């Protein structure tokens, strides 16, 4: 199924791109990478609007948009927070994470409604125009480091010089965690898309849009509460244990879902 294949490629690249994008930001600058990432998203959306074969959906939506969105994951927020804030880093990281999910929560239902009312091309063009606008704003206004403006990071009592481009890499243990977590995290997306299409037929994409909105709402709340818990307890141990327990419950609930090929609701 082309849509499932495109979503799979998109999610894999979304997770795999993050560490490389962060390293590129350390060398080339946050502003350049973020602006380029939005251009990739815009290009993928515009090309998808003119596609004539199923494989093009995998290339445009899966590869281009997957790479572009992968550059702007939570590692982007972490890098911005580490450079611009000395105090309240946990709170700021949580707020940035929550805001990204809130944006999806607001934007995705509108896109789903537009697809239902006007077909899929106008919403895709709208996405491309929004990405182009954001790319221009990012290229014009933000700066890579407080030193570029001659100011101190928030909460710092001393001026912090802009660091030299980084040449190092993350430790093996962190990379292993990132790979395993990325595979587990994105592995749920294609089955959910297929489940929505099999159960709801032509309304499947709309149902998935609302499902994803609920996911983003939960992710945004969890990100904010997790950062708050870090500030309160001084450690993420409580967050990891709690979220791990919730994931176990979700996995057990997924095992009782039953789907009919006749289009009936899940049991």
Q: Can you characterise this structure?
A:
By secondary structure, this protein is an all-alpha fold. Helices cover 75% and strands 0% of the residues. It has ten helices and no strands. It has helices at residues 2-28, 30-49, 54-70, 74-84, 89-118, 121-140, 172-186, 189-200, 204-233, 237-254. Helix 1 (2-28) packs antiparallel against helix 8 (189-200), helix 5 (89-118) packs antiparallel against helix 9 (204-233) and helix 8 runs antiparallel to helix 9 (204-233). It is globular, with a radius of gyration of 20 Å. Residues 262-267 have low confidence and may be disordered.
Q: Approximately how much helix is present in the residues?
A: over 70%
Query: How many strands appear in the DSSP assignment?
Result: 0
Report Rg. Answer: 20 Å
Are there runs of 5+ residues with pLDDT below 50, and where?
Answer: 262-267
Taking all residues together, what is the mean pLDDT? 80
Strand content: under 5%
Assembly form of the protein: single chain
Structural class: mainly alpha
Give the topology string: H per helix, E per strand.
HHHHHHHHHH
Which of globular, elongated, flat, extended, rod-shaped describes the shape? globular
What gap, in angstroms, lies between the N and C termini?
24 Å
**Helix count from the secondary structure assignment:** 10
Mind describing the biggest β-sheet? none
């Amino acid at each position: 199924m082309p849509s499932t294949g495109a979503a799979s490629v998109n999610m894999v690249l979304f997770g795999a791109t993050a560490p490389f994008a962060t390293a590129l930001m350390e060398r080339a600058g946050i502003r350049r990478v973020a602006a380029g990432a939005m251009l990739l998203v815009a290009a993928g959306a515009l090309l998808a609007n003119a596609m004539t074969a199923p494989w093009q959906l995998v290339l445009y939506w899966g590869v281009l948009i997957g790479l572009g969105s992968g550059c702007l994951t939570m590692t982007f927020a972490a890098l911005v927070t580490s450079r611009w804030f000395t105090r309240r880093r946990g709170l700021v990281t949580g707020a940035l994470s929550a805001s990204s999910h809130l944006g999806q929560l607001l934007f995705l239902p509108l896109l789903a409604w537009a697809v239902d009312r006007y077909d899929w091309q106008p919403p895709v063009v709208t996405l491309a125009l929004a990405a182009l606008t954001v790319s221009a704003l990012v290229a014009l206004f933000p700066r890579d480091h407080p030193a570029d403006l001659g100011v101190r990071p928030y909460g710092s009592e001393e001026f912090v010089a802009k660091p030299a481009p980084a040449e190092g890499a993350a430790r093996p243990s962190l990379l292993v965690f990132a790979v395993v977590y990325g595979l587990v995290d994105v592995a749920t997306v294609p089955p959910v898309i297929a489940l929505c299409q099999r159960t709801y037929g032509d309304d499947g994409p709309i149902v998935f849009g609302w499902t994803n909105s609920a996911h983003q709402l939960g992710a945004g709340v969890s990100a904010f509460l997790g950062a708050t818990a870090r500030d309160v307890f001084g450690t993420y141990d409580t967050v990891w244990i709690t979220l791990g327990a919730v994931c176990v419950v979700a996995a057990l609930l997924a095992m009782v879902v039953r789907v009919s090929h006749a289009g009936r609701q899940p049991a």
